Amino acid sequence: QTEAARPLGYRLPYATEALDSGALRRALPAAAVALVGRLDVAWSLPSTNTALLERSAPAAGRCDVLLVEHQSGGRGRRGRAWLAPLGGSLCFSVALQFPEPPAGLSALPLCVGVSVLESLQRAGATGLALKWPNDLVAGDSAAKLGGILTELRAEAGGPAQVVIGVGLNLRLPVVARRAIERLGNAPGDLASVGLGVGRRNALAAAVIGALLLDLQRFAAQGPADFLARWRRHDALRDARVVVAAAGHERSGIARGVDADGALLLEDATGARASVLAGEVSLRRESRGPS
After folding, report:
1. Has 284 been annotated as catalytic?
2. Which of 71, 81, 250, 290 has an alpha carbon 20 to 30 Å from 183's alpha carbon atom?
């Protein structure tokens, strides 16, 4: 991820902009600034999600935001590592508290995916899609561009603390690509789909600002509108897939998502079942009939 520059030491193989909390806050939309409690940038952390979960929850109606330049223990789904090259990625977490769990909370990761994808589209990225339940991919190649990890702490009849982690590949050097491939993923980066990634503070502010406002809408209105938008970006629509969960595999045709954000899987008889969790992979066959 770095290259030698004798006798000076090491340098990044590309120009990048350091993240700065002051610049980020100034670049946020005014409506989003009002929703921010703490906004911090750290140099190195094991995980931004873990760091926020160890803090007290922010006050209702406010969000804490934590960004990091380098994550040594970033986590993806199913305990996988999330690799983020220094200066070539955008890693942040948002913590918020609901007075009580809102309706449709299980669909929140999909709503976050819609928010992030559409903010990147507005910034110039093209050909983006969402792979259930929480991956941002390049539509044609299905290369993974980013991921979302949502963690919840809730009490029966009490408040729900949610921490949302977002990792985006802005520019992947060859070494990082090979490391990610060894983890079993097909890596991609947003620079390759038309996004200008040099001004990271402006980009981070655009993504985070949109997300904070969308989280406010989710709390007030529920997930229905977000799920309708999610279906328009569905990378798996009508594709033959295999879903692995709890040591078992199920195959069928992906038919979108239900009102709770679960994957609708159609079997050979035409019956549809809601899949709440699992690892989805495409089968070799082409997409099924609509």
Report:
1. no
2. 250
Question: What pTM was estimated for this model as a whole?
Answer: 0.88
Q: Which of 144, 171, 177, 200 is catalytic?
A: 144
211-237 mean pLDDT = 95
pLDDT digits (tens, 9 = 90+) for 19-70: 999 999 999 999 999 999 999 999 999 999 999 999 999 998 899 999 999 8
Q: Higher-confidence residue: 205 or 198?
A: 205
Per-residue pLDDT tens over the stretch 172-199: 877 666 777 777 677 889 999 999 988 9
Give how far Cα 268 sits from Cα of 27, 234, 282, Å: 51, 21, 16
Is-catalytic flag, 182?
Answer: no
Catalytic residue among 25, 38, 62, 77: 77
Q: Contact 42/49 with Cβ under 8 angstroms?
A: no
* Distance, CA of 196 to CA of 283 (rounded, Å): 33
Confirm whether 144 is a catalytic residue.
Answer: yes
